Amino acid sequence: MSVMRVHVVSDVHGRVDTLAGAADGADALICLGDLLLFIDYADHSQGIFPELFGAERATEYVALRGARRFEEARAMSALLWGSLGGEPREHIERAAREQYARIFAAMPTPAYLTYGNVDVPGLWAEHLRDGHHVLDGQTAEIGGLTFGFVGGGLRTPYRTPYEIDEEEFARKVEALGAVDVLCSHIPPAVPDLLYDVVARRFERGSEAVLEAIRATQPRYALFGHVHQPLAARTRIGRTECVNVGHFRRRGRPFALDL
């Protein structure tokens, strides 16, 4: 019996240089979202925000958010966006389109993609190429197995672009039914999978994804979102739960042999 290899990436955050080769040696690529880079928390000169306002302002903004001083961060952001004139959304979407154009031009085919919490779903369609399949609350057959995809994140004080209510997220998970591989941007709500050891905080995970794993026992549950997790993988019953890694930092995919 032949083995099919799938490469999986998440949290690309503008890492175009190695994205084009992310499917080398694989039959297909899966991308679990967060294509855009708003601010690189390791290098404050990289991303949409510093490109518009400079690294010094980006450092101030990151410090406020890191201290959970969200109202001050939003006030600072509003003042900076207002200095550009026009609507902030116009500037953000213009910069996002430029990033998406580069990212999707480098995205291999075939690729099965879902959205991350920092993505802007409404902008994807204009950049997709033949062989790019976007799924959110939907399934696809890959190598004879059923893969289910759930994009986006749950609401947080960070107010990233594609955060939704728990009820809406749960409906997307339920729509998948039983699958062989459950793919989501955010992890199931298991504390060790949610704690970022560098940021020193818990990210939000999904109770609905956790319950689906317990109820249907897929072979794998794949996700990203937490860049430096306390635990990169765990097992829930027969399901191997795997954080596929922070692609912007690692520059290489997670390989899954089926």
Automatic annotation (TrEMBL):
<feature type="domain" description="Calcineurin-like phosphoesterase">
    <location>
        <begin position="4"/>
        <end position="229"/>
    </location>
</feature>
<dbReference type="Pfam" id="PF00149">
    <property type="entry name" value="Metallophos"/>
</dbReference>
<dbReference type="GO" id="GO:0016787">
    <property type="term" value="F:hydrolase activity"/>
</dbReference>
<protein>
    <submittedName>
        <fullName>Metallophosphoesterase</fullName>
    </submittedName>
</protein>
<dbReference type="InterPro" id="IPR029052">
    <property type="entry name" value="Metallo-depent_PP-like"/>
</dbReference>
<dbReference type="InterPro" id="IPR004843">
    <property type="entry name" value="Calcineurin-like_PHP"/>
</dbReference>
<dbReference type="GO" id="GO:0042545">
    <property type="term" value="P:cell wall modification"/>
</dbReference>
<dbReference type="InterPro" id="IPR051693">
    <property type="entry name" value="UPF0046_metallophosphoest"/>
</dbReference>
